[in-house]
Structure formats: C-alpha cells, structure tokens
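Q: What structure does this chain adopt?
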Amino acid sequence: MNESNSTSQLIAIDDITIGERLTPISQPYVERLVASIEQIGLLQPIVLREYGSGYLLIAGAHRIAAYRALSRNTIEARVIEASEAIAAIAEIDENLIRRGLSAFDEGVSLRERKAFYEAAFPDARHGGDRRKKKQEGTLFPLETKRFTSAVADKVGWSERTIKKRLQLANSLDPEAVHIARETGLIANESQMLKLAGYTPTEQVKLMKAVRDKSRSSIGQAEHDLGWKVAKPAQSYADKLAAAFGSLLITAELVQLEAMKRQLDAAIIQKKRGNS
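A:
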C-alpha cells in the first residue's frame, strides 16, 4: 500500500502495539497535544503497519498517549506496508522533526537512524546509487542516497549539521552525559561541543566540577580545575590525530576507502625514502 494513497481509518487503541521506543515519551509534549486535540482535533493520523492480528505503531506514540489521556478508545490512523528498519526510521524522523531534542540526543537518534538506513538501503554505505529504483517499503520511493543527504532532505538540516550531531553523539563520555543531564547543560549545544573537545576522562572531571560547584559553563569549570580557558597544550601530532579521529566518525565509506588508498601510497613512499 502506497503511503500517499492510503486512507485513514478509526483503529482501536488497544489493538495497537507500540513496541520498544528509541526515545521516551515527553509528558509536556503530550499535554500540549491534549490541549490541541481538544480544541481542533487530530490534525494528522498516526501511522501503523499490520502486526499479527493487530497493528504496530510506526509514528504517533505521543498522539496515542494524548488520546489515552483524553480517555478515547479509538484513533484515526493510516495503515501502510513497511519493514522493521523503515518503521524505525519513520519513528526517528518524527522525533527529529516534531520534538525539541538536545543536539546530543539528535545525534544519538541520527546514529540509530544511520544503522537502520544502511540496513534497509545497503547502497547508501557506498555513497548512494544514482540509478532510480523502488525502495523497500513505501515510505521512501526515491533513489538510494547517502545517509546525510537523505536525512537533509527529510528534516531540512544541512549535511554539515548532521555530521556535527553525529560527531557529538560519538565523542561524549556516557558518565559526562549523565551529569550534563542532571545539571541541564545537555541542552546547551555550544557547551557540549566544547566538552567534546576533551578526552573522556577530562570530560567527566569538567562535568563533576560543573555539578559540584553549581557552574553554568564549561569555561567556569576549566577555571576551577586550573585549566584557565583552554585545554592543556597539545602537540601538533596529537591535534592531527584528534582531527583524523573525528573525520573517521563522520566520513562515508566511499570517502574512507579513498583515504585508505592515499595513506597506503604515502606509507610506501615514506618507506622508499627511508631505505
């Protein structure tokens, strides 16, 4: 069933399986939806796919939560065909578009989406397939694109922003992130980007300083630790290694393969020069 041609229908909420979500339900967002639904009704049906004798939710968990808060037993829905990977991508896209996630949480969602996207569209791992073809499922009836390009088209971000979000998600230490959530600093993208420039051990030290001394910035924590306003000086080799590590995280497979060829050639040339 093509998504654009599928019509909505009333579905019993008890027949819908929500499954394991990648992100938790936001109660404040549910409350805003409740007020909106009471005033103007449901503007967009939820999206389901058939699942056993009932349905599996693809997009609309917050709308279902709002309907339950209103003690309503049925909800307007569209039933489409979609694979497990496509269903997960649709849920992630809805969260990225509709919810005010932190830059770090957006990066975590993008990392999950990348895994699902490359599972559904293997050609995307090699920079995309320029030949137009029908994709698995019906949510993405376009040619295979590289991951960052596909996300940019879907959520309206630049590919540079997407890569920065991914780098942030891959660079922050879990313990440091936990403390950042406790202090609320997780919502400050510039502060998290600054924190990401440190090693995992340094990140934890900085966030403990923020928490224990009730600081509002990484700069204040740097001062408390005696690091002034800058990280201890790095050698050129260390800076080069850090930049290369970040590049490895954000580069597409086709770019990594090209880099490998260049490195192999450079190593051979160095060996000849030293012989």
